[in-house]
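Protocol step 4 of 6: structure prediction from sequence.
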Amino acid sequence: MRTENDSAARPFQSGVSVARPILISLSAFGAAEVRRHGQGWFSELSLAAGADGVEVRSELLVDPVNELPAIAHAMRTVSNRLVYSSAQYLWATDGQLDTAALESALSATQTLGASRLKMSIGGFGVASHRTLDDLQAHLQRTNIELLIENDQTPMAGTLSAMQNFFAVAHAQDLFLGMTFDMGNWHWTGEDPLQAATALASQVRYVHCKGVQRQPQRWVAVPLAESSAPWRAVLRAMPADVPWAIEYPLAGDDLLTVVQQEIAQLRGVAVGLAGTVCADKPDMSKIMQKATP
């Protein structure tokens, strides 16, 4: 279990300054294709394309007993940059902690050899407050970092829901990071930039996702095609937290498509870092002017 001041809670760091890790959420390849080829196949393709790691999705596992160990073996060189995403909620609609879902997700994360587990809060409410000690007890038996994601539901994907959860958790000395899905806010009618400003201190991992409005629904698209202010949202995020591609990746030459998208996202990261650096004063020049 990691705490607020634990250096291990810093995302995917190795003790030295490195380029921002770029991961791929395997759902980006489309549910039907992923189930057909398997997440192991797409994990290897992602690494071949230059990704630093992947996010394995529970809802796309066809044969978890065999798939998870196989993915763990294939990704053993980047195990500290693996994320396991559980589609199950932490709390049921009656506010009770779903310990079976939690234990199942923790077990799968350990089998995968991943350092992080991503889940949504589900039906967290007033009745859930007393269950936070139980959650903490489960986490303390592992070395897994639990990250809370804003999903596409009113109960677990609004700014007020996220702020309330983190405030209650902090008050009980439970310090959890957040997976900030920059696209999901649109599904719940929220302003992603307002959410980014309010929740930046919690963020340990970012789902990069552009959005467009189509009749009756929102759809995920590459950032370059997004109608949302994605650059401003990414600029509001903490420096060096990992980004994951979670918009559709498809094409006849899929390896090239993925390589291009990773390169573009790395370029965005470099550009934003340059903007931040340009905004900071050059202390060496200031000190030279101050020297008599």
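Step 5 (inspection) to follow. The radius of gyration is 19 Å.
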